[in-house]
Specification:
The structure is a homopentamer. By secondary structure, chain A is mostly helical. Helices cover about 75% and strands about 0% of the residues of chain A. In chain A, helix 2 runs antiparallel to helix 6 and helix 5 runs antiparallel to helix 6. Chains A and D meet through helix 1, helix 7 and helix 8 of A and helix 2, helix 3, helix 5 and helix 6 of D.
Chain lengths: ~260, ~260, ~260, ~260, ~260
């Protein structure tokens, strides 16, 4: 569970509700079913035109997977790679076969297995990087989806407000102008909240998780290639450690 | 037929019409022929200035071709390439000549024919990639066209609203202000809907189909080069499989 | 003459005038000399600050040259290059000297002359590409100019509207508000039309002509280098043909 | 302490307060606790959804470290590198071991230590550049954070204004319209000030400090590699000096 | 002196003043000291937060230097380089030592001096290009500064308008609404003029001068390297001439 997301949603809701109450408004005056339907449903309709079904169905899984995902421990990955490197230098690449089952990450498993199978480092590097690009593309779908959503929502908010204004202006009785405009503005209000409070931040967080997963994969690729080419384990460790902020590095790595 | 597009158009229309009806407006109050003509015709006039005739006539064909296009089956392409690779390794490159007629895709036909003709892999790669760039450029026309359209439509929507406002303000009778502004706002309404509900999403979907077609071509180029250079069929398959999301890979490819 | 541009300007004008008349406005109510002067003159003043005189004087020639320019026939260029390639392979590079006068394009003349002069392909490639970059830079001036113009015009439109509003608000008599605001809005109206109906589309078309001219030059560079390096004429033709959309290729090139 | 920041904050505050007073407004009319809470709290809530907790906690340290940071003296760095280069050329690379403790910068210490340890220049270069990228990424967090904040604040400002308008319009008494709108506009006012006066400028200054730190690191990398490869100390100095504006170079370096 | 800038400023001022007078407004109604102070002072305060003092002090010198700068004569530079090349081919690189004092440009002096000193072409190229990057970075400061200014000015214009509106709305007497809003709109007016008429165009012209200076430096680098590597003077001339538009080339260079 991503704590920050939960706190953010609760805090933002409290702020908005609080500003309504402190302004002596009622929550009910801010609730309007057709406006909500227009902003959400209209945006979703635009997204159906934007993306093929197969992509849309993937968005949900990417969203879930990424929001619940516990972050991988980069230090643990590096330690595992260094340990594998030591085995390989001591007992040869084939010795890694027996250690494959200790590895959790399927991407690292794939890399080590190719190394054990005797493929050349160039091919292993190429295959692993193609896989990385594919993962990046797949995860990008989520980010792009929420960004499109965040562009659509305020646009449909404006459409709804125009609908309200045209109706109100077409039959202008003094007593209707205020409430008519109030309702008309609600769709703009929904569009602004949906985009700025939920959709854009979700796109940002998906981008963050994506970049972090790619960082882990980058470390694994460099590690596997280092193992294959028989690089000195200490140098390999130092190279991989540069991916970690100095403060989080274990004590012996205190040069920077 | 692209189901998502159809559902999206129907759903969005329902949402907009629904919001008009639930607001106690009449559909007729939202219909205004000159406003529609100004938004569509004015934008189209701007597009005529933006693009030469030859490009515009291509937009229709790109649009149709891409919207009706059934998506190519990437897995089938990979399997065909692997099978061709096995033939070539067993019986030599010339043996592929007899298999050319089983291939549907003209781009792959071109590649295999060049390989059979004995051109060097560098030249085959160069020619196929130039073709890819040309396809990308041609398809891009559609996307760019709809994006220009989507920028023009709201601009002419605003022009129409300004026309309406200037007329209304120039002869301001209290009873005319409301209906005058209502009509003036309609062009903004049309521009907003055209851009956000139809044109931008169509540009997005064209971009998606374009990227997918290029992905298929990329796989074909790598496959043909792999066949020409006599790469091991199993390694070729593994390389090409990385372009497919893990879940969609056949069982034996379960490492990632 | 660029037909699409003419049709576009006529069509757009009809649409705007039509929307004024159908709204029961008079054309005269939309004509205001000081507003037009402010939008055009103000934007031009900003452009004088943006660009040095020498660049501005070039804009007119680029604009004219490009709008009247009849498009080069790419197929004819390729055929000429292939024919030159055949001469060179049959009779040697020096034989091309006698054929230079059949060539119209000064860029191609320059390339062939350098080849005949015995410069190395690397140098010919470098000189031709520097020339291409220079052409791109010079043509870019036109596009950039119209884009700057298109940004300035609505800005000065807004300045004019602010001027009108401040004057109107400073001396607010009920009977003046409507007409005052109507006149104030006219500069916004002019700015919007200038930018979206004329300037941005002109920038787009200049960009299109520029990209097309560069495509022709790219083909010439590749052709000249192919001729110099004695590439097989059939392969050269196939390479160059990939720059043409399949439908426009002559019959024998029907693979894709 | 960054003087310019302090002067900027004071000057801007004086300007805004001055414009209120000169307009015969009272400061109290511009203070509204719920509006401030909505703009700050709402934006912060959106940021919580955008970034994981671990990144947010780093923002504060980056902000502090960078704002208090006294700028490194580039000339001193170059002189130190040249002096180390002379030692290395005179007494060998190992002689640098004794001089490591005179070096303050941990990044330069790391580089020299690796050189002394006999790692190859390629590896030293790769490790130092990975470290640079990591520093760039870490510092970027601060800039990105303030940019997100600067986008959120006006958005929540608009949300607050919409809340105020809907409440005011829903219960429209003539005597309430003015004060109601005044309060509604305050959140837009807060959002505009927060974004344009504080957040965007802070993002800019963080970006400046980041680029300057990377410049120092670039000089160190080039210096260390020059030392390792035994480059002539005078040429090394000339190369490194190009990073300094001519006016700030010591007298002997007056060619440009 | 840059004539275009002066004419632009005069023309634009005439246009704006003319539109005020033709609208029967008075210039005094458009003059408001606190509004001007808020737009200029507030923007400047934001810039103080954005940039460190050392950068700000450089902006003035870059601005002056560039606006008064007489443009370098590219043809003269090329002729000088070709003449130096002929000397070097005839009498050897060392012969250039005697000609250094005829050279005005310190960047070219630096390059020739390094060539005479016998540095390798790779090192000369690297040092000259580092210098070019440094010049680009320094000049960029000016452009970036004016662009930041141009973003700040309208933002503070809006802040000022909000201040005016809140004050006016908080104490709404019918006779005050018009003049109150007129004054409130003045800051928006100032912000729009400052950004679109002065600051953005100045940023554009600085960018132009920067790109032109870099073009001259590019020609010098290529010339010096050509001289060092003993390239044929005629070919060197032809290469360098491609940087000049065909119409401006001397007669003998009429191929393109």
């Amino acid at each position: 569970m991503d704590i920050a997301t939960v706190i953010g949603i609760v805090l933002g809701t409290v702020m908005i509700v609080g500003s309504i109450i402190s302004g002596k408004g009622t929550i009910m005056a801010f609730y309007n079913t057709p406006s909500i339907l227009l902003v959400i449903g209209g945006s979703f309709a635009a997204l159906l035109i934007s993306y093929p079904m197969s992509e849309l169905s993937r968005v949900l899984s990417v969203t879930m997977k990424v929001f619940v995902n516990k972050q991988k421990d980069i230090l643990a990955i590096i330690n595992q790679l260094v340990s594998l490197s030591e085995s390989a230098r001591r007992d040869g690449l084939l010795a890694l076969e027996g250690r494959i089952e200790e590895i959790d990450d399927p991407f690292l498993v794939m890399g080590i297995r190719m190394a054990v199978d005797g493929m050349s480092p160039e091919i292993v590097d190429a295959i692993m990087r193609t896989e990385m690009e594919a993962v990046e593309t797949r995860h990008d779908v989520g980010k792009t989806f929420y960004e499109s959503f965040a562009k659509s929502a305020p646009a449909f908010g404006m459409v709804g407000t125009l609908v309200g204004l045209v109706i109100m202006l077409g039959d202008m009785k003094p007593e209707n102008i205020g409430p008519g405009m109030a309702v008309a503005l609600l769709t703009t209000f929904y569009g602004a909240i949906a985009a700025n409070f939920l959709l854009l931040p979700m796109a940002d967080k998906l981008a963050y998780y994506n970049s972090r997963e790619l960082l882990c994969m980058e470390i694994m690729v460099r590690g596997v290639i280092g193992i294959q080419t028989g690089e000195n384990s200490r140098i390999l460790k130092q190279k991989l450690m540069t991916f970690i902020p100095p403060k989080l590095r274990p004590e012996e790595e205190d040069q920077v």
